[in-house]
Fold:
Amino acid sequence: MEDPDSTRCDLIVFGAMGDLAQRKLFPALYQLYRAGLLHRASRVLALARRDLDTGSARQEMLGKLECHVRPNDFDKDDAGRFLEKVDYRQLDINDVDAFVELDHWRGDDRGNLIVYMATPPSLYGTISRHLRSAQCCNQNTRVVVEKPIGHDLESSRVINDELAAVYRENQLFRIDHYLGKETVQNLIALRFANNLFASQWDQNHISHVEITVAESVGIESRWGYFDQAGQIRDMIQNHLLQLLCLIAMDPPADLSADSIRDEKVKILKALRQMTPELMNTHVVRGQYTAGNSEGRPVPGYREEKGADPGSQTETFVALKVEIENWRWSGVPFYIRTGKRLPEKLSRIIIHFKPAPHYIFDPDQQHLANNKLIIRLQPDEGMALQILTKEHGLDKGMRLRQGPLELTFSETFGHDRIPDAYERLLWEVMKGNQYLFVRRDEVEYAWRWVDRVIANWQASGEPPKRYTAGTWGPVASIAMITRDGRSWYEDA
Ligand code: BG6
Structure:
């Protein structure tokens, strides 16, 4: 039986008053508290540069919780009780002596120590060294770090080396919040619990795969960060490559963290490298110009607040990715992601090959592929498009395409779908690493993405323009049309 005290923790949060911690981390902790999953003896120490006492920090956090927790889930009394577990200390990260205080805060009666670095990655090394000097961490400490781990392979190695100098890999929990989404975890259940799909999941049966992660928001207040990163570093290097790995990987031997991560790494290693020759046919980068989003006029990327009007940073990327192994040879994965697209949605579509011999009306042959549509967000669920006969005496053998539909909220009730951060924090408390990214995954992903970026830089080509509120540059449509296919919404 699981030890009821095994999830008890002392959670120390660096960068606790910053946007990420206030928008994601504290709301998730509050939800865990409400669900009875935050151990009654667990405590949180919030650290930041600002000179605040615990009382005023709690007051400020209460306001932020009210803002960031969905109104139906917010209860002021519960939030107040949760915040009684939170202490605040002002801390200058460069002051090594101040770290000794952290150990005092923990006192003698201790839970597992979890250190959460909600700071820029450039500070991970300093924080880790100072924690070690102050003897504030040991081999059981769990350390949670956020993306981006570097902006290329080389800088990610520097950060990973700094972390490795203090912690072992099994202490490190690198967050990719897409892995915490319920529907993303469902990909593992879908693929490996249903032999129906498992036996069809290869180049013999699948013609191609589409992965779209679209956002309707623009860049707004994050312009400074985003302009250094661009959509390829912000979304492709992590979220989209993780989704691609979960769709493409071989069955792991079991559900342990390393079994799953070993299989993902094999896919990252098998990605066909983008050569300069492939850039015209396999890669599209775009940048949005002024247009309309959700019914209101919005500025272009270069006209956002604080923008550099000459910026060449991409806000959209579409790629034709090929995986060089037996399972996927000849099956392109068309992946795309962008800001200021018509709607917010993440969706994967598996296009199955048609039957080997077609016997129905020739003018309906284009219907003859089954598709599995996996809706990651919103309206979480999946639909298998199958063909049936049209009803009616006069219809002969006319075909009709219709979905076998599974909408999670309808089928399994209207339970709240937990936010990714709730799941991820809960797994850290339990010490499970399977939803976190291992060092070699980060580095293989960078190795592949770096090649694409290097080719862009060498070509000097500016990103293609697309109007805010559309599905990206027409070149992205051309990329898939060249192969005689179309994006799902155009089909
Ligand atoms: C983050 C990116 O990792 O993911 C953001 O930095 C992006 O630019 C966000 O908006 C999207 O996450 P979600 O969960 O809203 O799809």
User: Anything to note?
Assistant: The longest strand covers residues 206-214. The mean pLDDT is 93. Residues 215, 234 surround 6-O-phosphono-beta-D-glucopyranose (CB under 6 Å). The domain at 5-176 is CATH 3.40.50.720 (Rossmann fold).
